[in-house]
Design goal:
Elements (H helix, E strand, L loop, with lengths): L6 H14 L1 H21 L4 E9 L19 H8 L2 H11 L5 H6 L1 E4 L6 E8 L2 H54 L5 H28 L6 E5 L12 H26 L6 H6 L5 E4 L17 H16 L6 E6 L5 H14 L5 E5 L11 H6 L7 H5 L5 H4 L1 E2 L6 E4 L14 H13 L2 E5 L8 H8 L2 E7 L5 H13 L4 E7 L24 E4 L4 E4 L40
Parallel strand pairs: 5-12, 6-10, 6-11, 7-9, 7-10, 11-12
Antiparallel strand pairs: 1-3, 1-4, 2-3, 8-9, 13-14
Helix pairs in contact: 1-8, 2-8, 4-6, 6-7, 10-11
């Protein structure tokens, strides 16, 4: 089970995912902005114009009990009346349009400002003139409808009062006729006088009320702010739509970046190796400090200082009896070669005796003999010939010309090395080197290409992983870690390199790799280009070192001919 990461590490991981896939978020944001602009351009333009109407109370106004608005006028009811069919019909007549009143009513909206008796009537249309005319028409139609309703109610009251006045007048005429016939001082006269007095009072009251109603001026309200011609459309809102599209695109881009990071198993940075692979990072190289195949890094250059710090960390992690360090890659390639060669050079510069063993069999002729080119030694004989029993240990040990404390055992001819990395002869060789050398650095093949890395790690005291970014996947790193754990080899950590550029095929000026013939130990005779037999002297015999010109590049090695019938991949055809 993986250990849980602190929240700060998770936040850094998410920010790192966005930083690595920033182009996805940028592209999605640009697409969102484009979609927002396209939507804004495709939507029809809508213009709005508003009229403010002051509503005045009339006699028939009665506010609802517990209504939201105060006063005698219920403005919520009046707001609903603005969009009614009667008002819409009058507005259509004022506009002189063929549009149905119901459709016109859908384009009008009413707002009631707080603590006022004002209705704000807003009309929407596809042109500024229609919006202005529609708002004014609905305001005018509402006032006319309200005035007509108030006048109609007033006329009904006047008609009712006229009827009552007429009835009382007729009643008084009858009472007066009866009084003329009644005897004076009788009870009938007294009752008729009392009845005439009451009727006269009622008639006087009705007459006064009738006079008041007939002189009443009906004022339903007034337009206090008429509709204006809008300058810009209210919809679509260009800035809002584009900003919304950009925000949606950004969110979508962040989601896509996270998903790409989540399902992309490649390791793209040193924190990925540490966080996702759970492997400590001993050193991280960039394009400026990454070594090349022409030479090891200088000790005081940027890359050399990185390997000097790596050397110090490795020495601090090793016990006193630990001597053998295996460097293996997590992906096919030459990352382990670069790390092993420069680590061995950094160890040798301290004055310790260091032996670098090239056990990384080349994947193709393009990758043949990289250690020989980097350190200025011959490509053959090497480890393959040693394990095959063709030469002795002293014949394959070559001292590098510029680092005297560093001796190299190159890979040799790959055709004879198959199946020999698990041999007892390799174990005996390492035991012998432990007795005469300070440190032994083994350049192993990648854990993903063969089981040789695991076999070599079983002979070592510590292991270092060379991780090539954007080429190594998280499962490959986890598998390499598990392989080392199964053989019990302590893993010191990883050296992280950027993705290495593919090497070009060798030209005629580059050294050709060939195998020596079986039999006695041999060394190349540069004058005859044939192998001359030499006895094993028991001491390391320096190989024929290619002289280096002033530009620092090695001269091409002599071509080697095989005495056997078959030629290797490095022979000239």
């Amino acid at each position: 089970m993986e250990a849980s990461r602190p929240p700060s590490s998770d936040v850094a991981h998410y920010l790192g995912a966005v930083r690595r896939h920033w182009w996805i978020a940028l592209a999605a944001t640009a697409a969102g902005l484009g979609v927002g602009a396209a939507v804004t351009h495709s939507l029809p333009k809508v213009y709005e114009s508003s009229s403010s109407v002051l509503v005045q109370a009339v006699d028939q106004d009665v506010n609802a009990q517990g209504g939201r608005t105060k006063g005698s006028v219920n403005l919520d009811t009046e707001a609903q009346l603005v969009g009614s069919g009667a008002v819409a019909a009058k507005a259509a007549a004022l506009l002189r349009t063929d549009v149905a009143p119901v459709e016109l009513a859908h384009s009008v909206s009413v707002q009631v400002p707080a603590n006022t008796t004002v209705l704000v009537i807003t009309f929407q249309a596809d042109t500024p003139m229609k919006a202005q005319a529609g708002s004014h028409a609905f305001a005018e139609a509402y006032l006319r409808n309200r005035e007509e309703s108030a006048r109609s109610a007033l006329d009904k009251q006047i008609a009712s009062l006229n009827l009552k006045v007429k009835q009382l007048t007729t009643s008084l005429t009858g009472i007066n006729a009866k009084l003329a016939q009644a005897k004076r001082g009788s009870s009938i006269e007294s009752n008729l006088l009392s009845l005439r007095s009451n009727s006269q009072n009622q008639l006087n009251g009705l007459t006064g009320r009738l006079n008041e109603l007939t002189t009443t001026q009906v004022g339903a309200g007034a337009i206090i702010s008429d509709a204006r011609l809008p300058d810009t459309p209210s919809s679509p809102n260009t800035l809002l739509d584009i900003a919304t599209g950009g925000m949606i695109g950004l969110l979508l881009g962040l989601v896509l970046a996270y998903l790409r990071e989540r399902f992309d198993r490649r390791l793209v940075s040193a924190p990925d190796v540490r966080d996702r692979g759970r492997v400590p990072v001993l050193a991280a190289l960039d394009e400026r400090t990454t070594p090349h195949f022409d030479d090891v890094l200088q000790p005081y250059g940027p890359g050399g200082r990185v390997f000097n710090r790596l050397r110090n960390e490795v020495l601090a992690s090793l016990d006193d009896d630990d001597r053998v360090i295996v460097v293996t890659g997590t992906s096919r390639g030459s990352a382990s070669t670069l790390v092993a060669a420069n680590l061995a050079a950094a160890l040798a510069r301290t004055g310790s005796d260091v032996v670098l063993i090239g056990a990384h069999l080349p994947d193709s002729v393009v990758d043949a003999a990289p250690l020989a080119r980097m350190l200025g030694v011959n490509a053959v004989p090497g480890l393959s010939e040693l394990l095959a029993g063709r030469v002795g240990l002293s014949r394959v040990l070559q001292r590098t010309p510029r680092i005297p404390s560093l001796r190299v055992i190159t890979t040799g001819g790959s055709a004879t090395a198959a199946g020999l990395m698990q041999s007892q002869r390799l174990r005996d060789t390492l035991d012998a080197l432990r007795l005469q050398s300070g440190y032994i650095v083994i350049e192993a093949p990648s854990t993903s290409s063969s089981a040789d890395a695991q076999s070599l790690a079983s002979f070592a005291d510590a292991a270092i992983l060379a991780v090539e970014l954007r080429r190594t996947s998280r499962p490959a790193l986890m598998d390499a870690t598990e392989q080392l754990q199964r053989v019990g080899t302590p893993l010191l950590g990883a050296v992280v390199l950027p993705r290495l550029a593919p090497r070009k095929a060798p030209t005629v000026d580059e050294p050709a790799v060939a195998l020596p013939p079986p039999g006695p130990e041999s060394v190349i005779d540069e004058s005859t280009q044939h192998f001359a037999s030499l006895p094993d002297r028991g001491e390391p015999v320096p190989a024929a070192v290619r002289p280096r010109p002033a530009d620092g590049k090695a001269k091409p090695a002599s071509r080697v001919k095989r005495s056997g019938p078959a030629a290797t991949d490095g022979d000239e055809k």
